[in-house]
């Protein structure tokens, strides 16, 4: 365990559901990215060692299979949760949520492209309810535009 920084980032361990023999381990911090390039069996062995070191369990059943996420190295996700870095601000969420074309562009009809999803919610980013609320927000935006008699959208349909 000494040579394995990521195992110290284990912050939660529980069965996937009551009575299950599937153990779900959660890791945090930059070190947790190293798990993605660690062979699955090795990940399992380190987890077993961690469990033994902090419980009174003498023996544990052998591991049948280890699955680990690879969201860090996946270019389409680059991680698991939306994270507001020190270089970012709340207004970045509003920028991501802004439909295209932007309001100042009068050449193109409004609302050609709209954005929903947790990463566009300033307060509840990283949550399911945040994602849901952004879907409602964008539907409202569209309805408002369709109900606006001056809307260029309405003239098109
Ligand atoms: C491990 C983990 C645990 C979590 N636990 C909780 C929890 O307990 N409670 C909670 O509230 N939230 C939790 N969350 C967060 C929650 O899951 C997300 O905030 C939520 O699912 C985001 O929804 P979304 O619709 O914005 O995006 P997503 O659910 O990520 O949906 C985006 C979809 O777009 C698809 N996609 C991406 N790119 C393309 C493309 N180019 N073309 C077509 N499709 C594409 C993706 O495949 C995906 O299906 C958790 C997240 C993780 C990772």
TrEMBL record:
GO molecular function per UniProt: polyamine oxidase activity
Membrane-crossing residue ranges in chain numbering: none
Compartments where found: Cytoplasm
Cofactor: FAD
GO cellular component: cytoplasm
UniProt keyword list: Cytoplasm, FAD, Flavoprotein, Oxidoreductase
Domain Amine oxidase: 16-143
Family assignment from sequence similarity: Belongs to the flavin monoamine oxidase family.
PANTHER family: FLAVIN MONOAMINE OXIDASE, PEROXISOMAL N(1)-ACETYL-SPERMINE_SPERMIDINE OXIDASE
UniProt protein name: Amine oxidase domain-containing protein
Organism: Desmophyllum pertusum
